[in-house]
Amino acid sequence: MPKAILDFPPGPSSKFSLRLLRQLSKDPIKTLSDFAQSYGEITHFKVGNGHVYLINNPDYIEKILIYNHKNFKKGKRLQTAKRLLGEGLVTSEGEKHDSQRKIIHPLFLPKRIASYGQIVVDKTSLMCKEWEDGSIMDIHKEMMNVTLRIICKSIMNYEIDSEEASKFSSALEVSKKYFKRLQHPIGHILDHFEILPEVSKSRESIKTLDSIVYQLIEDRKKNISTDNGVGSSRQVDQEDDLLSRLIQAQLLSTIRSKVEQNNEFDKHQTNAISDLNPMTDQQIRDNIITMLIAGHETTSNAVTWTYYLISQHPEVEQKMFEEIDSLLLKNSDGKKKIYGNPSIKDLPKFKYIEKIFRESMRIYPPVWSIGRLVEEDYLIDKYTIPKGSSILMSQYVMHHDSRYYDNPSEFNPDRWTDEFKRHLPRFSYFPFGGGLRGCIGESFAWQEGILLIATVSSYWKLELIPDQKIRMDPGITLNPKNGIKMKSSIRST
């Protein structure tokens, strides 16, 4: 390994580590953005005894996430998230991750994703019909609820009722706030004090989430059965969704165990199950929780921030309405416009909505940073990053870099021309993460976001309630702190 020319890249002095710790805890996005402005493409700083490197160069990020990915494992934030997510697809490593991804991946192939389009429109349309003209609501809460219903129906063929959805969302909010505190460098100490209200509330919230998911697993298992004969063929229902796939994988691994124990091998069957690791109820739970949370929170945040930006730019809103009218307006009866709902066939036609959504996720990326732990000394530029160090790559910082975006703070959907996209470095824009372990549902999220916006805005105009303090709340995803209140008005001529 070549020696580093300098001990460390530039960065804030370790003499002020306590001050830096407070800054990172209070406002990590501003702190990291300031580092990038002050110190350039690689910043070094210390948090406690740990060395952290902020990488602010798309080529370096590409090498870390793709070409040299085997030298890194998930960062400390996702290690902490295992308390909630377990060893699901997002947090697991190595063979366990690869085995789970192989089971889940077919649900996110292009044809399957397209089949979910009607579900997005149906659930969103139902939500829109429940709103009232002139009502004031937290648009983030509305988007969280509808995207939860969408992901449940799309990938699990499960209709979550209003009571369950409310319990799930409330428990999730408690868990997210607690795990954000655990991500503090000394936050793990908090977890040892069960007497503290936030600790007990967090544990109760996880029990609530678990009870919903385990009941779902139990109910589905009743519809999937196997013959009692060792090594015999399976008798299963025809459902091909996430939950059924995970349970069937569990059944196959059980059959494999019985076959191996009894030395009764069926060539066709053993070939089919030879590459499956044993699947427990806990693993099924971990993957369901992961997909429910990751599969609806990122999109709901992205759409919420999109409507916040649209509400402040009437010229963008008007152009969006014109596109929707040109595609969906069927006729006009007096003052009332009558729209048809969008379909999956309309998706490529919503070119301006796609630009709006893309620009919104540039300004407010759903995943605002990615962390990695260095497994072996790693040479980057003229510096050697030692084994055991942490690497940070921030989508928020990269998306606001003036080297790649003129007036980066400006909301400008029209910047996204085909030519602009062609010349943009790959990892100067990566709102859902990236690399060989990138978000498995990214294509679904794009489709869902565009169809959701098109459907909502064919029914309603959303107006931001004035005098709110809108702030970012950067946890694992980029939430709006305390939600965003908006007033709904029926669209009419």
UniProtKB/TrEMBL annotation:
UniProt keyword Heme, yes or no: yes
Keyword NAD found: no
A Pfam family assignment: p450
One function term, GO molecular function aspect: oxidoreductase activity, acting on paired donors, with incorporation or reduction of molecular oxygen
Gene3D superfamilies documented for this protein: Cytochrome P450 (1.10.630.10)
SUPFAM superfamilies noted in UniProt: Cytochrome P450 (SSF48264)
Keywords: Heme, Iron, Metal-binding, Monooxygenase, Oxidoreductase
InterPro entries registered for this protein in UniProt: Cyt_P450 (IPR001128), Cyt_P450_CS (IPR017972), Cyt_P450_E_grp-I (IPR002401), Cyt_P450_sf (IPR036396), Cytochrome_P450_Monoox (IPR050196)
Family according to the record: Belongs to the cytochrome P450 family.
The name this protein goes by in its record: Cytochrome P450 family protein
Species: Candidatus Nitrosocosmicus arcticus
